[in-house]
Amino acid sequence: MTGGASFAARLGGVIAMMLLLGCGLTAGLNYLKFERMLLEQQAKVLEILAVELGATVENSLALGVRLAGVPGAQSLLERSRAAEPLIGGLAIADPDGVVLFDTDRQNLGATLPRGLFDPRAAAHAWRFQDGARHGIGVPIINGFGQIEGAVLLRYGRDAVDERLTATLLGMVKAGLLALAFAVPLGVLGIHLVTRQARRWFAAVEGAMQPGAAPEPLAAGLQQAIAEADAVLTDAERQLEAIAATLPEPAPAETTPRMEPATP
Q1: pLDDT tens column, 186-207
Q2: What's the pTM?
């Protein structure tokens, strides 16, 4: 054989690369699916908190208090943020987008962009994105069915990223451990299964080399061809002998044609 990797080694390398590619694609798809699931789960939990805050403010409005004068609204937002580490910020704004209460007091009195906050266009909770942060808005409706404002909850994805990182490391460790056992066993199995095929390839490759001595495989093939040629030649001679003993066919006699008599 010529130098270089053997047939079993090349085949084992191809299968190992296919296994690595398959494991990588499976891990990537599972990672993206798990990421979407975590983000959706986090959003649902925070949406429940935002709806509860909105209901609390609506109860105060039922007593005849205006939204800007709801007692304890600022402390309610601050306590809610301190109790839930997933919350990045809480705010209450009026229908014009003016911030009335905010856990970041620097934003008090600021006007939110209409694309970010439009309570008139939402009868139910909605979601938005403010830069790198995600957000959930819940409308505040008074007892007459009129929109008084909205509760805005902002959150990041730091907690989701931490869980994703831990999950990704676990998947990588499990994949490497599986490959550590699968690749050597696969290469060994291929080496055992392809033993006869490697012998055939080696014999053919050796026989095709210039000036190479006749290999048993090539010699057997040449002998089979010679025997088949001899059988065909003998059959041809026998056919010629049989044809020589056959009598030649007599020429066919012509029958005179009868012409109709003329009256």
Answers
A1: 767 766 766 666 666 666 666 6
A2: 0.56
Give the span between the Cα atoms of 15 and 186, in whole angstroms: 8
User: What are the backbone dihedrals phi and psi of residue 87, each rounded to the nearest 5 degrees, phi first?
Assistant: -80, 130
Which residue from 69, 263, 31, 254 is spatially nearest to 160, judged by alpha carbons?
Answer: 31
Q: Report the percentage of the chain scoring pLDDT > 70.
A: 72
Lookup result for tokens 């979601």: 127
Q: How far is CA 154 from CA 45, 65, 81, 151, 208, in A?
A: 13, 26, 10, 10, 74
CA 126 – CA 27 distance, rounded (Å): 32
Q: Which of 122, 140, 123, 135 is nearest to 67 (CA)?
A: 140
3-state secondary structure the chain: CCCCCCHHHHHHHHHHHHHHHHHHHHHHHHHHHHHHHHHHHHHHHHHHHHHHHHHHHHHHHCCCCCHHHCCCHHHHHHHHHHHCCCEEEEEEECCCCEEEEECCHHHCCCECCCCCCCHHHCCCCEEEEECCEEEEEEEEECCCCCEEEEEEEEECCHHHHHHHHHHHHHHHHHHHHHHHHHHHHHHHHHHHHCHHHHHHHHHHHHHCCCCCCCCHHHHHHHHHHHHHHHHHHHHHHHHHHHHHHCCCCCCCCCCCCCCCCCC
In tens, the pLDDT along 38-71 reads: 888 888 888 899 899 989 998 888 888 888 888 8
Cα dist. 102→75, 85, 149 in Å? 10, 16, 13
Contacts of residue 20, defined as CB under 8 A and 6 or more positions apart, other chains included, come to: 179
